[in-house]
Amino acid sequence: MIADTAPRGHARAARWPHLRMRFGTAALVALGAPALVTLLAFTSVRTVVPGLLYVVAIISATVVGGRIGGFVAVVASAFPFFYFFASRYDRNELNAEGATALVVFVVAALFGSEVLGRERAARERAERAVRESESALDAATRLQRVADALSTAHTPQEVLDAVLTEGVRAAEARGGLIATVSEDGEWLEVIASRGYDLKWIEPFRRFPVSGNFPLSEAVRTGEGVFISSEAERDERYPELIGRSQPGHGLVCVPLVGERGTIGGLVFSFPTDQDFSPERRALKIALGRQAALALERARFSAAEQALRERLSFLGEATALLTSSLELETTLERLTQLAVPLLADWCSISMLLEETGEIEQVVVAHQDPERKRWAEAMRERTRTIMLDDEFDLTAQVIRTGEPVFLREVPKALLDEAARRDPSAAEALEHISIRSAITVPLVSGDRTFGALTLVAESRELEDSEFDLAQELGARAAIAVENARLYREAERRAEAALALAYVGDGVVLLDRDGRVRFWNSAAAAITGVRETEAFGRQPAEIVPKWEDLTRLAELADAATPERARSVTVPIETSSGDRWVAVTGVAFDEGVVYALRDVSDEQALERARSDFVATASHELRTPLAAVYGAARTLRRTDIEIPADQRDRFLEIIVSETERLTAIVSQILLAGQLEEGRVDVTTTATDLRPLAESVLDSARLRTPETVELRLEQNGTPAVALADEDKLRQVLVNLLDNAIKYSPDGGDVVVELDGGHGRVRLCVRDRGLGIPAGEQERIFEKFYRLDPALTRGVGGSGLGLFISRELVTRMGGSLTVRSQPGEGAAFVVDLPAA
User: Fold this and answer.
1) Which has the closest alpha carbon to 768: 599, 593, 552, 535?
2) In degrees rounded to 5, what are phi and psi of residue 178?
3) 3-class DSSP assignment, residue 138
4) Distance of CA 11 to the CA centre of its chain
5) Do residues 573 and 564 make contact, with C-beta atoms less than 8 angstroms apart?
6) What is the pTM for the complete model shown?
7) Residues 408-461: pLDDT tens digits?
């Protein structure tokens, strides 16, 4: 590994002492060993022994010094061998023995050097193989450490930390840097670094992929860029001279994932480097591992973000559909968005009638700040839809969302200048990033949702999420509005269903869409029969009913004029007041049965006529008697004068009675008549009334009192009951023109007391027996032979009896008389 990683100059310097020692040892053996063998010349050994020993010395020198050492030993051995040992035979001639020895010496040197060379080569190959194995094992170990670190990294940040820690260590580098390709593929953005001075990093936080930079080239080509020294870097990339951190070796490798190049990885070294193929492969492998891990972490983060997004949207959907109350829905929505999406969330709604934009709800995690914002909302100026500056107005007006990743300071300054309240608010809020999305229903934009972050920039994913949230919020708000409208209409329909007036709704085609129960009661046509049909098909007189009604406009329904017309129905003739209002979808008619009012008005008219007649008659008598008494041209006898005075008195009493009845009827209607009930014996009361009545009863009418023997003591107001009995007796006498018995019957028992006034007179038709108790109502003069009255007596009598806790009813047959029964509680 030292040979692989150290520079060449340093390697040569490190090997020189070792070579020098090796050469010294080889020279010592090549010269010393033959010298030692030559010492045998001072002995008497035979020639063969030194020869063999010279061979051994030559082989030893070859082993130590190689082939050169061997030949040096051959020279050092051959000369002393011939001079000291071969001279015994012939010093001047090379005999066969000497030649053989020389050949043996040379062969020994050659053979030894060859064998030794091969052995040394084999040993070097073995050592190199061991070194390569160790290097490969070390590289594999380092790669494994990086792989282990990356396998435990789950987030992109954890991957970056693992690459810049274990990756830099595995590459034996000083520092590392990671940059990723922007979404548009045009830029490289530095996302993490280690071992670099930030002042050199900041200018290159974002640089073009097309630039002439080492990492840009690696990303463009998909191949690693290996630079051995700073000089090489400056030569190849002159743009970096003076702009990058001083250094030595540099490696830039692309980060290539499953879907292409996603960025680049940089390793820097403290010294100049010699990048062998193995080292290059290691760096590329590190880049590949980092790319796959980063891509996997990104996918995992994206998947987690998607899960959280779906969970958030699911929760938002559940929340938004949990209530159809508009205020509750909006409040819950803003609370959900804070602080998950932003620091502030507000919803503004458009008031379409005025064009004003009203902030209806605002939310913040801090309740105090939320209350402060709500208080500020009351003091902020009103935003109009046509405001060209306000972003909320712009979003509602255009229906397009606005994303300010970083809100311009100029925008905030202008807002503060335009509105002092906004300036005050900006002193408490730091707006860094903002999103405003429209709330849209169909083609109509009715509001906006705004998210504000104070200390960070909102991301594209949050912008997308805000738009989806806005779409769901719009649906929820629209549902709440529709629910409120449906509820309002349902309440209106319920009110119309039970209102006393008939309501008929016709669509543009004139067909019935609503027909309430009152309309059914007035016309005699059920709703099921009327719905979907033309009114003229089911109500024969419909055209007559609505022809005179002048339709008012929907904008001014109060101008509708009521027209009263008579119609014929299955239940009889009715008077109906009709009003109509036309609107875009059709016409609505209001029908009111005014038959009773018409009858009352007619009764009032009849009463006025009757009262005029009733008052005129005694007045005429009084007036005539008074004028006669005032005459001076004639002598009026005393008896006639007394007769005129009696007429005046009696007619005055009659006038007083009529006026009293009118006043009492008014008092009864106003509830100003006091009734005090005590134990009252009806017999003395009835006898007293009968005695008074006999004084003015015709001779043809006989008055009687009958009692069944049971005491008739009732809880009643004696004065008021006397008045009732007087009215009943007067009516019985008056409506018995042919004479007959008029009987007052008293009966008691079972906790009740009954007083009945029965006559044998004209009788009352069945259809009139309840109406005769109505105020001002009188029977048809044709049925009563011209007998009339004020129409108040029976009304007053029933009212008084009712206030005493009793009842007044009638039983009658025409021509057979009538029986009026007063039923009172017993005392």
Assistant:
1) 599
2) -125, 130
3) helix
4) 74
5) no
6) 0.46
7) 888 888 888 887 777 777 777 888 899 999 998 888 898 999 999 988 888 888
